[in-house]
Amino acid sequence: MLLEVKDITAHYFKVPAIRNISITVDDGEIVALIGSNGAGKTTTLRAISGLKHPTTGEIHFKGQRIDKLPPHKINALGIAMVPEGRRVFPQMTVLENLLMGAFLRKEKDAIQKDLDELVFRHFPRLKERTAQAAGTLSGGEQQMLAMGRALMSAPKLLLLDEPSLGLSPIMCGEIGKIIMNIHTEGRTVILVEQNARLALGLAQHAYVIETGDIALSGPAKELRENDDVKKAYLGG
Ligand code: ATP
């Protein structure tokens, strides 16, 4: 097991946003978290990446307890998050944004290699636009840049928060393919999505989060066939 989230609860101003959430992620799989607005999906990702420390419960990554570590230490251990809404640095160029992702790394040759062989291979569009200000990229390109920036920290586990949000169906398909490619080369992904159809199509396992609790979990294939999931998240 690569990641184990054990019974975590997290609060904002004494109000619980998630309650007793447990999730396990195996090495190399895509795990989807689906659920409606405000269910607690983002809070779960923030807890894993160290941006929101859980009030109770534990998180273990590669056998090490991480739930009290600051975000930069968690990133250095191999977890990178792509936040909802991309949040690229708009005035900086594409290349500068990508290099920001590697700011904790020291090995210059490996950084250059990841830029050429990892990021530009998955995102050839970014290579054509290295000198362009990130704020002038299209929504889909900004999503690619945010994902490329996260990959520049050479993560073992990638946390994606709503990568399809606001994108055209064609661009959603393109991002979906890239997530699949990233998975195929051995990286592990936790995918938070409102687009349950996309998420359940990509993932091996999935969790349905409803008002801070896990309502349902299992193989993605089974959840796709589940009547409640169909009704609530797949449009009947
Ligand atoms: P969405 O898909 O809308 O982003 P989500 O499933 O990711 O939803 P969260 O963002 O984790 O849900 O929010 C869970 C609950 O925590 C919500 O009730 C939300 O209002 C609350 N919450 C989230 N962030 C904060 C914050 N910074 N301060 C106070 N409450 C917050």
Structure description:
The two termini are 34 Å apart. The chain is built from 10 helices and 10 strands. The model has no long low-confidence stretch (mean pLDDT 95). 39% of the residues lie in helices and 26% in strands. Helix 3 (94-100) packs parallel to helix 6. It is an alpha/beta fold. Residues 12, 17, 35, 37-43, 194 line the site of adenosine-5'-triphosphate (ATP). Adenosine-5'-triphosphate binds at residues 12, 17, 35, 37-43, 194.
Q: What sequence of helices (H) and strands (E) makes up the elements?
A: EEEHEEHEHHHHEHEHEEHH
Average of pLDDT: 95
Q: Please report which band the strand proportion falls in: under 5%, 5-15%, 15-25%, 25-35%, 35-45% or over 45%.
A: 25-35%
Low-confidence runs:
none
N→C terminal distance: 34 Å
Radius of gyration: 17 Å
Specify the number of helices.
Answer: 10
- Secondary structure: number of strands: 10
Shape annotation = globular
Structure ligands: adenosine-5'-triphosphate
**Secondary structure category:** alpha/beta
Structural key phrases:
globular; 26% strand; alpha/beta; single chain; 236 residues; six-stranded mixed beta sheet; four-stranded antiparallel beta sheet; binds adenosine-5'-triphosphate
